[in-house]
Amino acid sequence: MEKFMNQEEIQKRVSESLTEKTYIVMQAHINGSGRLFGGQLLAWIDELAGIVGMRHSGGNVITASIDNLQFKHGAHLNDIVVLVGRVTYVGNSSMEVRIDTYVENKKGTRHPINRAYFVMVALDENEQPKKVPRLKIETVEQQAEWDAAIKRHTLRKQRKAEGY
User: Fold this and answer.
1) Under a CB-based contact definition with an 8 Å cutoff, are residues 102 and 37 in contact?
2) What's the confidence (pLDDT) of residue 63?
3) Which domains does the chain have, with CATH numbers?
4) What is the torsional sign of CA 162, 89, 82, 55?
5) Interior CA angle at 114 toward 136 and 102, to 5°?
6) Mind naming one GO cellular-component term on file for this protein (predicted)?
7) Which residues, 6+ apart, have CB-to-CB distance to 84 below 8 Å?
8) Ranges assigned E (strand) in the chain
9) What is the average pLDDT score of the chain?
10) pTM, full prediction
11) Residue 1 above 60 pLDDT?
12) Whether 60 contacts 123, CB under 8 Å
């Protein structure tokens, strides 16, 4: 319990772990219908969620769950794909990370193609869950995302209790 006491007052801003990563869709990323393979996108999203979680927690993290993954549009060969990740909510050792994925055209305009929410758990040097810094909410948008995350957290707990 002592390891939880040392970091109780530590807070981090959303901007401190905000991460953006860019890819070009190549032939190896294409599925049989000529679009970005969903599994490839999922791997990219999971990687980015891990980076965001590591930046917020200051240590290693694992993926505990994928709460939501919405494929809105596809990406195609030679598209520029941009992923933007941010922490939306923190518990004791867990963090909800939102990843928005866009296709960016040659003029720099981005069009959303996916949104995902991951739950990441911070681990200490013994691979046990460790306390994460509190999240400092600074904007109305961040507060709205926090409030929505609480609802998602409640639904996750309910689904777990019901066995799915």
Assistant:
1) no
2) 97
3) 2-161 (3.10.129.10)
4) negative
5) 85
6) cytosol
7) 18, 19, 20, 99, 100, 101, 102
8) 11-13, 19-24, 60-71, 80-90, 94-104, 110-123, 134-136
9) 92
10) 0.90
11) no
12) yes
Half-sphere exposure in the Cβ direction for 49 (13 Å, CA): 32
SS3 118: strand
For residue 42, give the DSSP letter.
H
- Which residue has 């999971």 as its token pair? 46
DSSP alpha helices (H): ranges in the chain? 2-5, 38-57, 140-161
Q: Please name the amino acid found at residue 154.
A: T
- Residue 125 corresponds to which amino acid? E
The tokens for 41 are 């996108």
Q: pLDDT digit string (tens) for 57-86? A: 999 999 999 987 888 999 999 999 999 999
